[in-house]
Amino acid sequence: MSYSLGLSKKMIVFVFIVVLIFVESRVSANFDLMDELSGREEWVNWAGYGEEKLSTVVVGGTILCHGADAKHKTSVHPYPVSGAKVAVLCGTSKAWGDGSTDSSGNFLIDLPSHLHAIPNLEKVCCVNVVHLPETSPCRSGLHKGIKLSSIGDGTRTYTAHNIHLMPQKHT
Questions:
Q1: What share of the chain is helix, strand, coil (3-state, %, to 5)?
Q2: 144 with 158: CB under 8 angstroms?
Q3: 37 alpha carbon, distance to own chain's centre
Q4: Which of 44, 75, 81, 170 is the most buried (most CB within 10 A)?
Q5: How far apart are CA 151 and CA 157, in angstroms?
Q6: Of 165, 2, 170, which is closest to residue 81 (Cα–Cα)?
Q7: Torsion sign, CA atoms 34, 35, 37, 39
Q8: What number is the average pLDDT over the span 69-85?
Q9: Which parts of 11-83 are beta strand (E)?
Q10: Mapping DSSP to helix (H, G, I), strand (E, B) and coil, where does residue 166 land?
Q11: Are 43 and 37 in contact (CB under 8 A)?
């Protein structure tokens, strides 16, 4: 009995030494990585926070105005609003991205990288028409949700589709 007990103790010591060597080699491998990554640029790139953009998230859409005719009724045929200021709001009232419409009323807003990790932006973000040119008979301030339209090559594209604005009410 004492022979098997001595063998068992020797086996435990042997297993302990093997585990200790394995753990030490893993720890020293991590220190080697720290030695190799000496500069700030190397560290931020290794961690995924480098200057090089890893992904892109854009939100697009078109702003259309249903202008008023001589009797102040809504026009049947909307027209694009050029020069409108548009913002993407996510969760709070703070704008996370903004842009302006082109001559066709189209906008495309590239969202900042801290929003890229949010998987379902359509649940927390919306488009807000912030400001319209003074010549526009329509009113701003409309919020519209976004919808995922495509994913590929490191880019997620969301759309607000057409945003239809109505004329201001005259008093």
A1: 30, 35, 35
A2: no
A3: 28
A4: 81
A5: 6
A6: 165
A7: positive
A8: 75
A9: 56-65, 79-80
A10: coil
A11: yes
Q: Over the stretch 112-156, which tens digit does the pLDDT of each residue have?
A: 888 888 878 899 999 999 999 998 888 888 889 999 999 998 899
Name the nearest CA neighbour of 148 among 139, 161, 157.
157
pLDDT at 44: 52
**d(Cα 104, Cα 83) in Å, to the nearest integer?**
10
Residue 68 to residue 75: CA distance in whole angstroms: 6
Euclidean distance between CA atoms 3 and 26, whole angstroms:
35
Are 132 and 81 in contact by the 8 Å Cβ rule? The answer is yes
Sole residue written with tokens 């239809």 = 164
Short-list 83, 104, 78, CA closest to 164:
78
Q: CA-CA distance, 153 to 158, in Å (whole number)? A: 15
Nearest-angstrom CA–CA distance, 67 and 73: 8
pLDDT, tens digit, 9 for 90 and up, residues 24-64: 655 444 444 455 555 655 555 554 455 566 789 999 999 99
CA distance 165 to 167: 7
Instruction: Pick the most confident of 68-72, 104-108, 119-123, 142-146.
Output: 104-108
